[in-house]
Amino acid sequence: MSGKYIWKLALTAIIVAFCLSYLIPMSDQDFAEHVTERSGSPEFTALMERAKTLSEESSEGNRPLSVYMALKKIANDERIDISDYFPDLQLESSLTNIEKRNNILLPTLLEDSKANLKRGLDIQGGISVTFEVDPTALAEVPVDQRNEKLSDAINIIERRVNTYGVSEPIVRPVGENRIELQLAGVNTKDNPELIDTIKAPARLEFREVHPSADPRTDPRPTGYIEMTRVQDDTEREIIQKYYVKRIPALTGKYVDDAFPRTNEVGGIEVILNFNDDGAKLFADVTEKLGSITQRGAQTRSGEVGLLAIVLDGELQSAPRVSERISGGNAQITGNFTQREAIDLANTLNNPLELPLEVVEMYEVGPSMAKDSIESGVKASVIGISAVSAFMIAYFMIGGFVALASVVLNVVIVLGVLASFNATLTLPGIAGIVLTVGMAVDANILIFERIREELRNGKNIKSAVEGGFGKVFSTIFDANVTTLLVSFVMLSLGTGPVKGFGLTLAIGVMTTMFCALIVTRVLLELIFCTGTLGKFKTLSLFTGSNYDFLKYRKPAFIASWCLVAVGLAVLVSKGDSIYGIDFTGGDEAVLTFTQKIDEGDLRKALEDADIGEANPLYQSQLGTAEELLRIQTGFEKGEAAVDALVAAFPNAGFDMIGKNEIGPSVGAEIQKNAFLSIALSLGLILLYIAFRFEIGYGIGAVVATIHDILLTIGVFVLVPGHQFTAPMVAAILLIVGYSLNDTIVVFDRIREELLLKPTMKLREVINVAMNAVLTRSLLTSITTLLASVSLMVFGKGVINDIAFTFTIGIITGTFSSIFIASPVFYFYHKGDRRSVESSHDIIPEYDWQVGSKQSPTDAPSKDQ
Q1: What parts of the sequence cross the membrane (predicted)?
Q2: Sequence-distant (≥ 6) Cβ neighbours of residue 423 within 8 angstroms
């Protein structure tokens, strides 16, 4: 076997092995079994049995201890160093405190027992925590500022949660003084400190320490209070007491940024950067304390200037100040672990002004109903089977190659996501769907190019090489434009926008790798080594000669008229078109004696014409009590309860509470979604103008805007549809698909302009669109097979997303032919010289795969 095949196969094998190492195990393992097996020590096995017994027998408050917390309790109470049983996990030898060592090691073992690729709230459920603002603190806030303060608290909680790798949490207001937080993949029984960290106020204060008075011997001076600091970095606790001023010299409101850092001696500290006002105040107080220290050294009075750093009423440290510090920064030193330092920095960067208390904690089921998930899995299997059958039937051996490449693509995407400890949610799955669509499209492009080369009389080896050489720029440009979109979403997006952007960014790079490396080496092994001599496929629309531009004006006008009608209907419907995710609504809380399947509940609510309604079962943590929550539009909660009582008289439904809930897709997510799309379109315009020419860029942007608006218009024209959170992902999906389709057409126009220097622009565009017609139809067919399967066999939100994407596929294909290309044609007024004066050469890359064109392969402009 040739060396050029071996290195490609070896590289592919290494990448796939890396990804599988992160994907296995696919699901969480039992913690006790995992650590017992990993340790292999009989002594640890006995310790684990004690932890299991304690877990079964003990309780803390009203919550039973998990096995993990029971093990932690036994180890810390009895001063057992868990690291003795896990010599492969190295801890710093300087960290001698056993509790600190256990608090670092045990979370590592717990995380190691979990699957790297987590599932989101919409797929697996999680926990729901309701915080209530301290009534006394809220009473001090002016009435007209309370909603703003509550909104600020919601944004702060969301930012804090995101640092824990919890993707797309739901944070929304409930009533007038409560905030609901829903987290996926979080077990508070194993991590009880998490909720306390999330709701910590982070009141940071810098206070002067009395220069000479000692609490152990001297009475308390006026204006000072006594504070204690406990150091426990060794086996022996060191207790230090100070008199500190009641009134702080400056507070955390002057801190611009905080971050953890390892200092020169290997310890962890938190660095603070002050704003301009804070830098001045800090310089003034350190100058004062520095002069006290210098005076005390000169007079030998024992006076020393200390600056106490106090967080939420607890003394963190009291460093000596020797001189004025004017750099605008400070550091908090202490016995921090890396996680503690990160938590502290995160909390300081997002300080809560309003104190919060936990009033409810529940386990919640997936926000996407069980019947929707099951139907989605079934529909996906049907769709994948249909796409596979079509690819094999049409491209024969090429179809098998394409499917192998696409499967590896998906494995690599999931593996890379798992290596980031990402959480897979519905928007992320939408990104994977788009990745699969791009991967299939790339393979179809390759196969169609190879067929063209064969029709031009080349042998199979030359056809494979030439096909890859000519398709490279198309695949490169299509994927780079999509990558620009994903980078913007990652930078600006929050919630579903960011989740989609991450998956898409990974998918773009894996698609290029699989199409240009994996597909190529498989085809070369099959055809270029003589295994097979013919590349057989079916033929569709080969040699077509349609005058597409002839119909550009009526198609353009009709399409935009439909857009206008859809937008008019959207405006006329007002807020009624938006679902609970965008507007909020009522939430009724019910007890029951007989549990009814969520699918049956949803059907009963649909029959009663309640509108959008989301039934969710929740069980209170630590108890067997289970409640049913029904989320509806405003003023429909009681009607929903009446409908369920009538439909299921033996279920014993009884409403015990009702709240108004806020939107889960807040204003910030909506704003960032629009901003991401707008900035993406701007970058696409610049990129295509640079790589192609400005007329192409304008055509691509207009076509993408058209597809978004037309899809929304058709969506609202069809009765029974509302915009929900997953619709954000569906719209983003359409942006990616539309761009990919348009770039393919434009790249062919650019190529035909080079190959046909005497042909008029109108004819060139028609030739190019006819040349890619087969590819466009095949891509649309394969993508439609998947989306229509989801639309027909899926339920609930799966059906809505599939319906939206189906519209997007049709509009994307239509716009590439009747919007993007005509706009490009209009921009240049039908004159190819206008294009040539700007840019019409296909760029070559030093790393381009395949043979380069020689100067004689194509005619020059002057020919």
Answers
A1: 6-24, 392-418, 424-447, 468-492, 504-533, 554-572, 673-690, 697-718, 724-746, 767-793, 805-827
A2: 118, 119, 120, 165, 166, 167, 168, 184, 185, 499
